[in-house]
Amino acid sequence: MIEQSNSTLNKKVIRLSVAPMMDWTDSHCRVFHRLLAPHARLYTEMVHANAVIHGDRARLLAMDPVEHPVALQLGGSEPELLAQAARIGADTGFDEINLNCGCPSDRVQAGRFGACLMREPALVAASVAAMVEACDVPVTVKCRLGVDNDHDYDRFRDFIDEVADAGCAMFVVHARNAWLQGLSPKENREVPPLRYEWAYRLKRERPDLQVIVNGGIRDEAEAGAHLDHVDGAMLGRAAYHDPYLLHRLDIEWFGGVQRTRSDLLRALRPYVEAQLERGVFLKHITRHLLGLFANQRGGRAFRQVLSEGAHLPGADWSLVERALVVTESFQADVATATP
Question: Are residues 243 and 291 in the same domain?
Fold first, then answer.
């Protein structure tokens, strides 16, 4: 097995993480999530190795210092290019480089990366070995259980073993198959059945590996139940649509004092105003805040104020404050009406 410097991540660090999500987990989103969950591990959107090497790194690899620990997720299937991109990511300051072996979109299939790599363990192993050699931060893999009609646990475990022998000590397992034909990416997140027991069994059989479960985790109870079997739980859309869930989990799992939604959001003000000074439009930040009052009285009004005003010229923090005041007035009315 190839030795990897710092290959094993601290268990406390990986207990809670937020999945890489295309068009969502940009730097603004991650700064917000870090405020909510100081102990969570955060991931970038997937960036193709070629884009890292040849593209606008200032934009693609944008990262605020408060985000740490944060991982760069790479897409690609050429070991030399992945190694070069991994080195760039580590030099930029990312704490982990993660290889995507789970995205099922048509675009990644055409480029022979993402979920299709589940059927090419030797190529994934070669890529991981090259990345390990190229950088001094942990190289990890996010994968599915299999592709299409691959329903053989032994095949899945063999994939893990071959990649682990190349130097990967941590696997994030999206506990579904990926269907490369007939399902959209959205359907691929919902239609294939979840089989968490495969991830649990992998951890039992390979206790030296770090195994994180991803897929279909909706609330605190479900997230906490996984910790009885694996090293961590990675939340995706639940964390984005109800970001206060991250805060509740962080307090429950790591300790601390739970803060109100309004208090947390007002703590984001210095960051928002600094970004506005740099010429960032408010809408690029507030789009990540819309779910903060999900399932709360006044939540709809909060979303409406931000959605209708953030795109207007000159929109600034006062709009966020107005949204908070409107929401708090709804909640105050409920409190007053409660006997």
Answer: no
Assess whether pLDDT exceeds 90 at residue 227: yes
Annotated active-site residue 103? The verdict is yes
Q: What is the mean pLDDT of the chain?
A: 93
Task: Specify the pTM.
Answer: 0.93
Q: Residue 2's pLDDT is what?
A: 39
Contact between 175 and 215 under an 8 Å Cβ cutoff? The reply is yes
pLDDT of residue 12: 65
> What's the total number of domains in the chain?
2
Look up the domain containing 322 and give its range.
Answer: 261-337
Q: In the 8-state DSSP scheme, what is residue 298?
A: T
Domain boundary among 213, 231, 254: 254
Determine the Cα angle at 262 with ends 260 and 266, to 5°: 120
Residue 4, pLDDT > 60, answer no
Q: Which two tokens stand for residue 263?
A: 């208090």
CATH number of the domain that residue 318 is part of: 1.20.120.1460
- Looking at residue 189, its amino acid is R
CB of 329 within 8 A of CB of 298?
yes
Q: Are residues 44 and 79 in the same domain?
A: yes
Is the confidence at residue 6, as pLDDT, over 50? no
Closest CA to 194 of 213, 171, 166, 170: 213
Q: Which of 101, 103, 135, 168 is catalytic?
A: 103
Cis peptide before 65 (omega within 30 of 0): no
